[in-house]
Structures are given as structure tokens and as C-alpha cells.
Amino acid sequence: MNTFRTVVEISPWENKIGYDDPSVWMGSCFTENIGNKMKRLKFPVQVNPFGVIYNPVSVKNSLEVLIEIKFLGYDDLKWHNNMWHSFYHHSSFSHPEKDECLDMINSSIKEASSLLREARFLFITFGTARVYEYIETGRIVSNCHKIPAANFRHYLLEVDYIVEVFKEVLNKLSYLNPAVNVVFTISPVRHWKDGPVGNQLSKSSLIVAVQRLVELFSFAYYFPAYEIVMDDLRDYRFYEKDMLHVGSQAVDYIWEKFSGAFISHNSALIMREVEKICQALSHKPFNPASPQHRSFLQKVKLQIGELEKKYPFLNFREELNMIEDRLKKADG
Predict the structure, then answer these.
(1) Alpha-carbon distance 109 to 119, whole Å?
(2) What is the greatest pairwise CA distance in the chain?
């Protein structure tokens, strides 16, 4: 029977992820979508400790900060549009108060540096091989923070250069944490401002560079998120309205492929129990002040208590705080 699709088959991976396996996720699309699903399901993860970053050099620079535990100082911040910014970080770390900005940045570096040293997995997603170099310093930035384009030089990284800078940082990482497995992905989100040809050239450069790295390092792997969207889900109904970003159906499909290949059997069973709690709390009540909703919240609270007792490594603090807030509102 014809399937009328080119299905991308994912074989089960030998190194499975369990609830006792910390992981760090860095990069763009795949990192945000799949990493946050892991976080929601209570796996020990940290997702994008520098915020969303797109190019290989910025990922490499961020990894070196974590490996060397290099905290940022006042001189690392740039004042623009009434906000303090870091060229290492996404604008989600920007703040009008200098000390607040640094506190957010360095707290995240401290947490991620610690987790990276014990992580069994590091997931890295490259979004583009095109970079912006700040002319004043000659350094490639992770985010331009809406500073005028005339202050930057914009160019495409060469494949050999990507491989060389990442060889260096992967050697440092394996020395720091010999047990780590590095999984590369390429974001299927198209960078349309580079044009269709420019976008394909960028993605092709990333794919070739990652393939070389996987061949060079026995602990490096490739997960074909890009190919799943481009070849398996080859239809605009799997995209958002901008026709560039993948939609929720595509994310769910990639998650299904990923979890089936990576998540251990025992952890998958726990994951399903956690998912029931998450789904229950995601429903918006018709009448938040009703006795029925209060009873529902108490029931979920008991279920969480039973799960935490059964699996002490699960942490539902955020959900329990949410339930308490809703109960207080229900009481008036």
C-alpha cells in the first residue's frame, strides 16, 4: 500500500535519556520546542541559559563561558534603547537596571555551568551559518539588540571554520565531562531575510559541518529534525501563518519521533503520568470559583503528592504554587 509520504524513520538510540540524566539544551528552534517539553515533563534540564541563539560561533562562545565559568561584568554590557544588553545573550536577559541585568545573566551561567559538568546530554541546534560581527570589537554576537546594521558586518561562515571552532570546544567539553553525549540538530525554520537561495546555502553549510563533527567525535550524534520537517512533513499545513516557523502539529510529531528514540522505557511510563497532571492543569475552568473546580484542584493536588512520593526526583513546586493561588482565588 502506498503511503504517499517519505517517512523519516528514527532508529532507537543506544544511549537513552532517563529522569536521572541531566541535559543542557542550547540553540534555536528544536532546543526551544523539544527542550521545553522535557522541562514541562520534569526532566532535569536547562533550556537556553543564554536565551535563543542561532549561529555556531555564538553557541561555541556560550559553551566556553560555561566550561570556564566566566561570569560577566559591567564592561560586558551595552546600553541601547534605555536597556542594558549582553552580546552573548538574547534580549530576554536585557534590563533597564544594570545590576538586575547582570544578576539574571550570572545566575543563569552559574546554574548551567554546574549542570553541564554532570550532564549526560548536550543538545545543540544551529539555525543559521550567517553571523553578525560587531565592528567595534570584531566579535560575532548572539543578538544585535536592534542596534543599527551599520555597526555590524554580516557574512556567511565557511564550513571549515565552523568545524574548527567546534572541534576546539568539543575537546574542552569532553575533558570537562567525559560522560557527555552531544546531539546536533538543524533548525527547520527558514531565515527568509537571506532569501530562498541564501537560506538553503546557510542550512547546507550547517548540515555539512555537523556531519563532519559527528564523524570526528564518537560522542557526537545527529538528530534529523530538519529532514523530518522538510521531507516527512512536506506541507504548509504544518507551519505557522508566517509560513516559516513550524506549527504545533509539527512540533508534536518531532517530539513523538524524538521521545520514541531517546526516552528510556521506564521514564516514558513516568512521563505519561506527569503528562496527565500537566494536561489537567492546562484546562481553563468555566467557573474558577465553583465548588466543582475547587474539588478538582484538591484532587490534582493529591495526585501530585502521590506522584512525588512514588518518584521523589519529580518537582511539582510550580504546579503546587499554581494550585494554591487558584484555591485562594476560589475562596474569594
Answers:
(1) 15
(2) 64
**pLDDT-based confidence at 2, cuts 50/70/90?**
low
Residue position matching grid coordinates 541563539: 53
Structural domain spans, the chain:
23-263, 265-332
Cα 184 from Cα 139, distance rounded (Å): 24
Q: What is the pTM of this model?
A: 0.93
Instruction: Please tell me the total number of residues recorded for the chain in this structure.
Output: 332
Q: What span, in angstroms and rounded, lies between the C-alpha atoms of 119 and 45?
A: 9
Q: Scan for cell 533550556, then name that residue.
A: 47
SS3 153: strand
For residues 228 and 289, the model is more confident at 228
Split at pLDDT 50, 70, 90, the class of 332 is: low
Contact yes or no for 41/143 (Cβ under 8 A): no
d(CA 199, CA 203): 6
Q: How high is the pLDDT of residue 285?
A: 78
Provide the 8-state DSSP code for 91.
Answer: G
Q: How many CA atoms lie within 13 A of 105 on its CB side?
A: 27
Does pLDDT of 152 surpass 60?
Answer: yes
What is the spatial distance between Cα 236 and Cα 80, in angstroms, rounded to a whole number?
A: 38
DSSP assignment of 46-90 equals EE-TT----SHHHHHHHHHHHHHT----GGGEEEETTEEEETTS-
Residues 142 and 88: beta-carbon distance below 8 Å:
yes
Q: What Rg do the C-alpha atoms of the chain give, in angstroms?
A: 21
Say which DSSP state 158 is in: P
Q: What percent of the chain has pLDDT over 90?
A: 76
- Domain 23-263 CATH assignment equals 1.10.3470: no
CB burial of residue 274 (10 Å; 0-12, 13-18, 19+): buried
Dihedral sign for Cα atoms in the order 153, 156, 157, 158? negative
Q: How far is CA 324 from the centre of its chain?
A: 29
Q: At what angle do helices 317-331 and 265-282 cross, to 10 degrees?
A: 20
